[in-house]
Amino acid sequence: MKPTRWRKTRFIAAASAALMAWVTVASPAMADTWPFNSNFRPDTGNHNYCYSSTYTPQAAIRTQIYNSMVYMHNNTNAKRTYHSTCDTSGEGQTDVVWQGRSLSSGAIGDAACMVKWSSGRCDRYRTRINGPLIRDHYSSDTYRNRQYRKTSCHELGHTLGLDHYPSPYNDSCQRSGWTGTVSDSWTRIWTAHHRGHINDWFG
User: In CATH, what number does 46-202 get?
Assistant: First the structure.
């Protein structure tokens, strides 16, 4: 009987280790809160966007911003509307104003709430993509475009209340950093868990 008990013990230990490994892998997506910052609770309704007339993103960046907005529209309850002219005054302003410019912080991109309601909801975000940095980092237009797409998806996610997704989990564009030569789908999508947060808020 001793060998039998040893095999059972070994099996239980292996099963416990497997369960712990699953919990460790699954926990980041399950545990993240929404919104990750009280300044990043968007208003409801269509998630309108425009391109800054002062810091207009280059055409290649605009293409990838558009692709990210379409992805949001087709895969979540947040719907896009394009504003040819940015509305930056009064109530009901353009939700996301996209800029393409160098950032003194050295970041690839960033997002900030510029107008916040007394209710705590953000009425207008400024989202910036550091095109010059990306073009310096990559000599290939293919890699540049992949980074534009990943960064636009990432910063758009922040305007929808999503937090950074921790490395090395390759499931979401909310993971920070460079795409390198990677073309996997995670560089341009959000996890089902993230989409669930968005869908719950936008109904």
Answer: 3.40.390.10
Measuring CA to CA, which residue among 44, 60, 54 is closest to residue 151? 60
Q: Which token pair is 191?
A: 């996890």
The angle formed by the CA atoms of residues 95, 65 and 73, to the nearest 5 degrees, is: 65
Is the separation of the CB atoms in 141 and 173 below 8 Å? no
Residue 97's Cβ-count burial label (10 Å; 0-12, 13-18, 19+) is buried
62 against 123, higher pLDDT: 62
Residue 6, pLDDT > 50, answer no
Per-residue b or e along 106-119, where b marks 16 or more CB atoms closer than 10 Å to that residue's CB: eebbbbebebbeee
179 token code pair: 């795409």
CA-closest candidate to residue 83, choices 40, 124, 39: 124
